[in-house]
Design goal:
Layout: E1 10-15, H1 21-32, E2 36-40, H2 41-48, H3 58-72, E3 76-81, H4 85-98, E4 103-109, H5 112-119, H6 130-136, E5 148-152, H7 157-168
Parallel strand pairs: 1-3, 1-4, 2-3, 4-5
Length: about 180
């Protein structure tokens, strides 16, 4: 089912835990202004549904539905999360194929050692341990078909946000009056 318009942008930001996905997604939305829906895997999976991350889980459909609804309402969408390729790849491929406007994919490639350092600065660090991070970590868990631009850990947050805004054209589009 076709979704969005020729003008809406769909931006998917993926990567391992503590790779900076949420910070990049928030930075893109803040850099653009009103009119960007931030669709976060953690919010929908852990907070809304309290669902486990497994193939076929209910959160996969909810993420797809929220992204489509937002695109159909005229919002640009920044979808962010770990979004393992084997769990979410089919949904993301359908969403990409169905979106009428341009779609962009980014994968934040952060080595495990850097993941540990970044994770230690988060409030959740006392709840989620090193063994959890190790079990979740998948190096370069890219989607098939070369649909993602890989951004390394050496790219500063501000530079990554500016790059995404520039490459998606969101830096040249007017914010919505909502």
């Amino acid at each position: 089912m076709r979704t969005g318009t020729a003008q809406t942008r769909l931006v998917v930001v993926r990567g391992n835990s503590a790779s900076g996905k949420s910070a990049v997604a928030s930075g893109v939305r803040d850099g653009f202004g009103r009119g960007v829906a931030l669709v976060g895997q953690d919010n929908l999976r852990r907070t809304v549904l309290r669902d486990r991350d497994r193939p076929g889980a209910a959160n996969i459909g909810l993420i797809d539905t929220v992204a489509r609804y937002s695109l159909d309402a005229g919002f640009h969408v920044v979808l962010e999360g770990i979004l393992y390729a084997d769990h979410y790849g089919d949904m993301l491929a359908r969403l990409r194929a169905d979106h009428r406007g341009p779609t962009y994919g980014y994968y934040l490639d952060v080595p495990f050692e850097e993941t540990l350092l970044r994770h230690a600065t988060k409030p959740i660090a006392e709840v989620v341990g090193v063994d959890d991070l190790r079990s979740w970590y998948r190096p370069l868990d890219l989607l098939p078909g070369g649909t993602e631009t890989v951004i390394g850990a050496d790219s500063a947050l501000a530079d990554t946000v500016a790059r995404v805004l520039r490459e998606t054209g969101l830096d040249r589009l007017p914010a919505m009056d909502r």
